[in-house]
Amino acid sequence: MKAPLTRFTYVIVFFVAVSYAFFAFPRGMHAWQDKQRQVQEMEKRNANLAKEVERQKEHINRLNNNPAEQELEIRKRLKLLHPDEKLYIMGDHPAEPRP
C-alpha cells in the first residue's frame, strides 16, 4: 500500500516541477506562444502560395489548350506584331495621377 502512494506522489511532484519550469522560465510559455504564432503565419502563407500555384497552373493549361489566348499573351508580354501590323504609341499614361 505504501509503494503505490509513494509512486503517485513522485509522479505528482514531477508534473508540478515540469509545469513550473514550463511557465516560469522565459523560454517556456512565451517561446511556445511565439512558435505557435509563427506556425499559423506560415500556414496562412503556404495556403496563399498554394492558391497562387494553382492559379498559375490553370493559366498555363489555358495557354497550352487555347492558341488564341496564347497569341494574346505573346503580344502582351513580348509586344510582338504580325508582319503587316503597325503599333502606334501615343504617349505614356502615368500609373498614378499626380496631385
Describe this structure in words.
This protein is 73% helix and 0% strand. It is mainly α. It has a domain at 43-79. α2 crosses α3 (67-78). The longest helix is centred in the middle third of the chain and has 37 residues, at 29-65. The radius of gyration is 32 Å and the shape is rod-shaped. The model has no long low-confidence stretch (mean pLDDT 84).
Write the layout of secondary structure elements.
Blueprint (H helix, E strand, L loop, with lengths): L1 H23 L4 H37 L1 H12 L21
Helix pairs in contact: 2-3
The helix/strand class is mainly alpha
Amount of beta strand: under 5%
Any low-confidence stretches, pLDDT <50, length ≥5? none
The global form is: rod-shaped
What proportion of the residues is helical, as a percent range?
over 70%
Helical segment count:
3
Number of strands: 0
Q: How are helices and strands ordered from N to C? A: HHH
- Please state the average pLDDT score: 84
Largest sheet: none
Question: Taking Cα atoms only, what radius of gyration do you get, to the nearest Å?
Answer: 32 Å
Distance between the termini: 87 Å
